Amino acid sequence: MRLDKYLKVSRLIKRRTMAKEVASQGRVKVNGQAAKPGTEVKPGDELEVLFGQKHMTIRIDRVEESAKKEDAATFYSILKEERVDNN
User: Fold this and answer.
1) What is the CATH number of domain 3-83?
2) pTM of the full predicted structure?
């Protein structure tokens, strides 16, 4: 599945256009490599995402084309989450 679609379906980012923007700006890495919106992701991959003040490392557990809001949290495991100071 494409990275931008995964970020939307898993509800890590609410809109696919925002997911594309974040990936295009180089704020997402897949398995340590900078990723583009079209990068393919699969279960077992690790994502590093920089959301403004927060840096998250996530392992992909499931990949599906669509998900109910309640099921979205089962798509990934948070390995590390830290605040980033932009001083």
Assistant:
1) 3.10.290.10
2) 0.88
Q: Scanning the structure block, which residue is given the tokens 């392992």?
A: 59
CB 10 within 8 A of CB 76: yes
- Spans of all domains in the chain: 3-83
Alpha-carbon span 87 to 76, nearest angstrom: 30
pLDDT tens-digit profile of 26-79? 999 999 999 999 999 999 999 999 988 899 999 999 999 888 888 888 999 999
What is the helix (H) or strand (E) element at residue 81, kind and residue range?
Answer: strand 76-83
Q: Tell me which H or E stretch contains 4.
A: helix 3-9
**Nearest-angstrom CA–CA distance, 61 and 73:** 10
46 and 59 in contact (C-beta within 8 Å)? Answer: yes
Cα–Cα dist 28/45, whole Å: 12
Q: Give yes or no for a contact between 63 and 1, defined as CB atoms under 8 angstroms apart.
A: yes
